[in-house]
Write a structure and sequence with these properties.
The chain is mainly beta and about 280 residues long. The protein is built from three helices and 14 strands. The strands form two sheets. Strands 1-4-5-6-7-8-9-10-11-12-13-14 form a twelve-stranded antiparallel β-barrel. The longest helix is centred in the N-terminal third of the chain and has 20 residues. The N and C termini lie far apart (about 50 Å).
Length: about 280
């Protein structure tokens, strides 16, 4: 099967899956009465971020690290996201780090994001997982040679159709680094394409559905479509994210549960995440 046919098969999958989420019931709980004092109340979390402006700092505790259908680690993870952005929020640059409680999982990433217009965002991530059980180069932090590095550069674009139709379309491609063929001689340019839709958005709970496919833009025939996300092209990540916010006085604790199934990897996982600040 050639590259064009593989790409068509992935896109056709989304054509049939996306209407499930688009035409699911989408609503706000309009009959909830919000106290006027609550509307104007600023949480401690918001005050903390306002004081940091234009810098930002976020902390998250997760039961595992689930990323694009892959269980990066099954240990409990504490993650830090820190950076600086312009006043209009269009340009951001920062670092992201994840550390497992067992000491095995460790990750340190750099990123830059740019949103030229509303609902459109471009992002470039330099992702470096230097876990102790890594099967790739996790020793040479500053090594970027394509066939030696443990880094990979991920370029993505995200677009939300409109406020009335909040269907989000996302495409990312690994453009350099730890995404190589059998002989480690060429980049596979593994790509991940996702559609997601918020079917419930209320003061009580939020629910998003998503479906994603993965494939290599430059596959090797011997690999049968192998890519960064699995042993073959196809559905890489299907699931839902449900979230709510717990209130402790002025402190707010957003919680999300992500359920993910990866048909190409014959696996499934569920992650619970607490956005501490």
């Amino acid at each position: 099967m050639n590259k064009i046919t593989s790409l068509k098969n992935i896109l056709l999958t989304f054509v049939f899956l996306t209407p499930v989420s688009i035409f699911s019931q989408s609503y706000d709980v309009a009959d909830l009465k919000i106290n006027e004092d609550e509307k104007s109340k600023v949480s401690l979390n918001e005050e903390f971020q306002q004081e940091l402006s234009p810098f930002y700092l976020h902390g998250q505790l997760k039961t595992m690290h689930l990323w694009r259908g892959l269980a990066v680690t099954n240990s409990t993870v504490f993650a830090i996201d820190a950076g600086v952005g312009t006043a209009d929020g269009k340009l951001k640059a920062g670092v992201w780090g994840g550390y497992g409680t067992t000491g095995e999982y460790r990750e340190f990433d750099y990123y830059v994001t740019y949103s030229p217009v509303k609902n459109l965002t471009f992002a470039l991530w330099d992702i470096y997982n230097y876990s102790t059980n890594a099967t790739w180069n996790n020793k040479d932090f500053f090594e970027y040679n394509g066939d030696k590095t443990g880094h990979f550069l991920d370029l993505s674009v995200s677009y939300t159709i409109s406020d009335k139709i909040p269907l989000n379309l996302y495409w990312s491609t690994v453009i350099h680094g730890r995404d190589r063929g059998i002989e480690n001689e060429k980049n596979l340019y593994s790509s991940y394409v996702q559609a997601s839709y918020p079917v419930v958005k209320s003061k009580v709970v939020n629910l998003d559905l998503y479906a994603a496919g993965a494939f290599a833009l430059s596959p090797e025939k011997e690999d049968k479509g192998k890519n960064f996300y699995g042993p073959k092209s196809g559905l890489a990540n299907v699931g839902f994210i449900i979230g709510k916010t717990l209130n402790f006085g002025r402190y707010q604790l957003p919680i999300t549960a992500t359920a993910s199934w990866s048909p190409i990897n014959d696996s499934g996982n569920i992650q619970l995440a607490f956005n501490i600040f």
